[in-house]
């Protein structure tokens, strides 16, 4: 007999540990286990180990609402975030529930429960399955096919699999890309490299934020930790949401603001216009954050520079550009983006029928149409991941409580509306490459996935868990549908 649990959580990262904490808090006595494919807690923050890796969301909104962030920096290092997640798991008594090196490959729903199969052949069963593995492909990042790469004689690396033995001290480095990873790597590597060049096909919008939150620091000196955390969190939520709404409603105004930041730091309007003026509108892609303007500082010091051009091919000494220029490099870092993978790559079947996530509709941004007793965790694209994740955890707990109270065995979202649109609203390459593999969203509640935490935090805790849902009281085919 396979070991059985009330709930199985996939992933021991920021989301999975948060889900376990909420489950213990709101449903004491519920049996659960966390299945983690890697051998450590942390998820994304354990995977990425490249120089300077950090959060681009402030820690007062990225951290858990139930465990205040005590670190000095608001934009924190990857290591400190990983330690925070581990400490939360230890403090909450969650760590003993984690099974490491337990990669879930498939899950089949039948006879009122899930049978979950691991890569090593072990099977477990559960009443409810909750996927908290994020949406990154942990096995590989996006890697374009660069012509002539085999001719290159230097070191070529991808940030997602950073080699421990790489020493870039005194070396010429080229970082390909202009996204969050690139703007993090360049100033970090420029501290010891001979020179770092950020090679981009087109510019991205950058915004400068302080690494420390002076208001939060003041609050923490004057107020109890939990109160200060709540006030700082609310302040940052309001500011970020206001800026997002301004960007969508007054894009030209926001363009001017962002350009002003860059000109103020670089003191070179022509350089800003050439390398930091994108063709798209602000928040069509996620804004890249520069803590304390570190990238601009490296450029002004001359330890880093930006080249906007296209790669023609790699040559033994570096990269030849379409303009005819050759960038000589001892090390090339391909910060060319991530690969997205829905539900952690787990194959789902319901009564023998394989679920195609790309043909499903997201129910309240938490469940999938036609899939019983299954939830997945996905964050905001315009705010901290944890803000939506925690709402999802609490919703799952409410749904489980309703099932128990009403005597139901399962809850299955209905088919959803006919009119559908993509789940993610960004034009970023890494999103567009994978849109057809992700669930869609509809045009009405509860089938829309809003990018508005202020609305969600008011409505999600009060959402009717019965709406557009089909329930069963037993494994027999007697259904009760509530619309």
TrEMBL record:
<dbReference type="GO" id="GO:0004499">
    <property type="term" value="F:N,N-dimethylaniline monooxygenase activity"/>
</dbReference>
<keyword id="KW-0274">FAD</keyword>
<dbReference type="GO" id="GO:0050660">
    <property type="term" value="F:flavin adenine dinucleotide binding"/>
</dbReference>
<protein>
    <submittedName>
        <fullName>Monooxygenase flavin-binding family protein</fullName>
    </submittedName>
</protein>
<dbReference type="Pfam" id="PF13450">
    <property type="entry name" value="NAD_binding_8"/>
</dbReference>
<keyword id="KW-0285">Flavoprotein</keyword>
<comment type="similarity">
    <text>Belongs to the FAD-binding monooxygenase family.</text>
</comment>
<keyword id="KW-0521">NADP</keyword>
<dbReference type="InterPro" id="IPR020946">
    <property type="entry name" value="Flavin_mOase-like"/>
</dbReference>
<dbReference type="InterPro" id="IPR051820">
    <property type="entry name" value="FAD-binding_MO"/>
</dbReference>
<dbReference type="GO" id="GO:0050661">
    <property type="term" value="F:NADP binding"/>
</dbReference>
<keyword id="KW-0503">Monooxygenase</keyword>
<dbReference type="InterPro" id="IPR036188">
    <property type="entry name" value="FAD/NAD-bd_sf"/>
</dbReference>
<dbReference type="Pfam" id="PF00743">
    <property type="entry name" value="FMO-like"/>
</dbReference>
<keyword id="KW-0560">Oxidoreductase</keyword>
């Amino acid at each position: 007999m396979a070991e059985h649990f009330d709930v199985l959580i996939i992933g021991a990262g920021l989301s999975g540990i948060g889900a376990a904490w909420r489950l213990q808090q709101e449903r004491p006595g519920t049996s659960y286990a966390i299945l983690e494919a890697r051998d450590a807690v942390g998820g994304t923050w354990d995977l990425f180990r490249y120089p300077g890796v950090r959060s681009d969301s402030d820690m007062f909104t990225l951290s858990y609402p139930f465990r205040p962030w005590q670190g000095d920096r608001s934009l924190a290092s990857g290591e400190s975030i990983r330690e925070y997640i581990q400490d939360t798991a230890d403090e909450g008594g969650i760590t003993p529930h984690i099974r490491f090196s337990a990669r879930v490959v498939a899950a089949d729903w039948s006879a009122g429960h899930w049978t979950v199969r691991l890569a090593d052949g072990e099977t477990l069963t559960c009443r409810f399955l909750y996927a908290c593995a994020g949406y990154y492909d942990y096995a590989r990042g996006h890697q374009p096919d660069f012509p002539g790469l085999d001719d290159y004689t230097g070191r070529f690396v991808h940030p997602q699999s950073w080699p421990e033995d790489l020493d870039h001290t005194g070396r010429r480095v080229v970082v390909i890309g202009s996204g969050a990873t690139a703007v993090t790597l360049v100033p970090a590597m420029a501290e010891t490299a001979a020179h770092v060049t950020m090679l981009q096909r087109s510019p991205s919008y950058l915004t400068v934020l302080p690494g420390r939150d002076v208001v939060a620091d003041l609050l923490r000196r004057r107020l109890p930790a939990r109160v200060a955390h709540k006030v700082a969190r609310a302040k940052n939520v309001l500011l970020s949401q206001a800026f997002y709404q301004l960007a969508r409603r007054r894009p030209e105004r926001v363009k001017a603001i962002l350009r002003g930041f860059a000109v103020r730091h670089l003191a070179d309007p022509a350089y800003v216009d050439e390398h930091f003026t994108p063709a798209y509108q602000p928040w069509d892609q996620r804004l890249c954050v520069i803590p304390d303007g570190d990238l601009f500082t490296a450029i002004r010091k001359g330890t880093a520079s930006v080249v906007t051009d296209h790669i023609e091919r790699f040559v033994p000494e570096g990269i030849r550009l379409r303009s005819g220029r050759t960038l000589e490099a001892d090390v090339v870092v391909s910060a060319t983006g991530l690969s997205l993978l829905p539900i952690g790559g787990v194959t789902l079947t319901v009564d023998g029928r394989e679920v195609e996530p790309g043909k499903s509709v997201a129910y309240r941004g938490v469940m999938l149409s036609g899939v019983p007793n299954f939830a997945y965790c996905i964050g905001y694209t315009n705010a901290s991941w944890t803000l939506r994740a925690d709402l999802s955890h609490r919703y799952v707990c409410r749904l489980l409580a309703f099932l128990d109270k009403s005597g139901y065995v399962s809850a299955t979202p209905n088919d959803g509306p006919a009119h559908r649109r993509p789940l993610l609203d960004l034009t970023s390459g890494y999103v567009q490459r994978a849109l057809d593999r992700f669930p869609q969203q509809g045009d009405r509640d509860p089938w829309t996935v809003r990018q508005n935490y202020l609305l969600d935090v008011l409505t999600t805790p009060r959402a009717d868990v019965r709406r557009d849902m089909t329930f069963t009281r037993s494994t027999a085919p007697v259904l009760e549908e509530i619309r």
